[in-house]
Amino acid sequence: MKIFVSNDISEKGVALLREHFDVDVMPNMKPEELIKVINNYDGLVTRSMTKVTKEVIEASTRLKVIGRAGVGVDNIDIPAATAKGIVVLNTPEGNTMAATEHTVAMMMAMTRHIPQAHQSIQEGKWDRKSFDGIQVQGKTLGIIGVGRIGSRVAKRMQAMEMTTIGYDPYITEERAHQVGVELVDFDTLLAKSDYITIHTPLTKETEKMLNAEAIAKMKDGVRIVNCARGGCMDPEAIAEGVKSGKIAGAAIDVYPTEPLTKENNPFLGLFNVVQTPHLGASTIEAQIGVAVDVAYGVIDALEGRPVMTA
Ligand code: NAD
Ligand code: MLT
User: Fold this and answer.
1) Cα dist from 215 to 6, 10, 37, 207, 230, whole Å
2) Which of 67, 133, 219, 226 is least surrounded, with the fewest CB atoms within 10 Å of its CB?
3) CB contact at 8 A, 183 and 166
4) What are the UniProt keywords, alphabetically (predicted)?
């Protein structure tokens, strides 16, 4: 059987796959290119950059499994895959800690203007006046989506003496209590939080959840973090909020359209915004973790053993 790996994944995962199958690795293929080759393969392994559209899926009569080396499966047309009997699996655990730690790092970098101060000192300046921040101690962190990453972010920020509240209609009070999060409704979270961090999947419900209407209900001087999915926010509304001073800071890792360019980056030149190019999962440990997990999943699926679908 043959596997197509359409994004860079750790060599450890590719090596595992090669023990069982013929493997071709060709990163960063556009859907129209993928359509031309997909019918040669029984399995497809992707990260988030590959869009596995309905057209890609329908171009294949041979594909049996799509493995996502990561959490979000919003780049895969799951209904189209299911209709063709193709198994879609992901690796929900492999990059949880990486994304958690990146969220904490982004929150602190934004709060203390670390990237801006670094840039300043690199330019030969000794400016101790322009980078005053605040303390997170004693502030309220509102977590939208108290799942794997949201709950771990909660634990870490509790250690920094933040109060953690959460909005997640799909978890129990008991689970929230276990991770020290007080569950509240969405509007209460918006009204009470000094910091808001989102950790939901991108779904119809969460699309543009952080929009102008939501921002209007937030505290003046709120700080926002998005290391989940770009589609969960309206970037223009957040940029407007920063410009008006309503939002004191934003830390953004993900974007509705990736890769982000100078032309479609609404945060360009905004001092109070810290940005990274979708680096939440970019640690050595996480990349090995997701590559190995996805390889085992694809091997199991193609060798007829039960797998956990996405
Ligand atoms: P998870 O499934 O463990 O947790 C998601 C939580 O969101 C769940 O508790 C769920 O109940 C909740 N939720 C779903 N719909 C909701 C809604 N409408 N309102 C409020 N809560 C809702 O997922 P996770 O592993 O914690 O991942 C969270 C997000 O982070 C995903 O979007 C994932 O793709 C993204 N992610 C990003 C990176 C990165 O590189 N930046 C890395 C890993 C994961
Ligand atoms: C994920 O959903 O796993 C992350 O966004 C990381 C990635 O796509 O590599």
Assistant:
1) 38, 39, 45, 15, 16
2) 133
3) yes
4) Amino-acid biosynthesis, NAD, Oxidoreductase, Serine biosynthesis
Looking at ligand 1, which atom is closest to the CA of residue 203?
15
Report, as an integer, the average pLDDT of 72-101: 97
278 labelled catalytic:
yes
Instruction: Report residue 28's pLDDT band, with 50, 70 and 90 as the boundaries.
Output: confident
User: For atom 14 of ligand 1, which residue has the closest CA?
Assistant: 200
Instruction: Check if 58 is active-site.
Output: no
Ligand 1 contact via 31 beta carbon (within 6 Å): no
Ligand 1 site-directed mutation target among 78, 200, 208, most atoms within 8 Å of CB: 200
Which residue has 């939501």 as its token pair? 214
The Cα 63–Cα 85 span in angstroms is: 9
Long-range pairs for 104-107: beta carbons < 8 A, 24 or more residues apart: 104/153, 104/156, 104/157, 106/225, 106/227, 106/251, 106/252, 106/253, 106/274, 106/276, 107/136, 107/157, 107/195, 107/197, 107/223, 107/225, 107/251
Cα 4 to ligand 1 centre (Å)? 27
CB 283 within 8 A of CB 310: no
Cα 196 to Cα 95, 176, 280, distances in angstroms: 21, 17, 17
pLDDT digits (tens, 9 = 90+) for 136-161: 999 999 999 999 999 999 999 999 99
**99, 149 contact by CB (below 8 A):** yes
Structure ipTM: 0.99
